[in-house]
Design brief:
138 residues, mainly beta, 4-stranded antiparallel beta sheet, 6% helix, globular
């Protein structure tokens, strides 16, 4: 779970009003794409929930580029061009994106992930979004 200081900062930032419930977000988005092809996959945040994404883990059966954006913003999260997953390889061999400032997603936001295979063979790409799920007190 996210550090309580981050939750407190969000409470006072006016982006989220009076959250009363915290839960771990572990949302997996997975897609099988043909060799050298592009695939698009989406994940929609439930009504009444806010997500604070602090880390994204990547896994795949081959090399790929990706672009992540959401339907509420005109910009992609990291770059306006697809980026190579290898840019996020850790010393452990895992592919992870640590976000020093969490990405805040409002209810019913749709996360859009575009993946392009670079291996030339069929590829399964997975994204694991980690962070906190907050429910607004209505």
């Amino acid at each position: 779970m996210l550090n309580q200081n981050i939750i407190n900062e969000v409470k006072h930032s006016n982006r989220i009003e009076y959250p009363h419930k915290e839960a771990l977000v572990e949302a997996v988005v997975s897609d099988s794409i043909a060799g050298s092809a592009t695939g698009i996959k989406t994940k929609t945040i439930d009504s009444g929930e806010y997500w604070l994404i602090s880390k994204i883990k990547l896994a795949s059966t081959g090399a790929f580029d990706f672009l992540i954006k959401d339907n509420r913003s005109s910009k992609s999260w990291f770059s306006n061009a697809e980026i190579d997953r290898d840019l996020f390889k850790k010393n452990t061999g895992a592919y992870e994106i640590d976000l020093p400032i969490p990405i805040v997603l409002k209810p019913e936001t749709k996360i859009i992930i575009e993946m392009t295979d670079k291996s030339g063979s069929p590829n399964v790409c997975q994204f694991l979004f980690l962070g906190a799920k907050l429910t607004k007190n209505i």
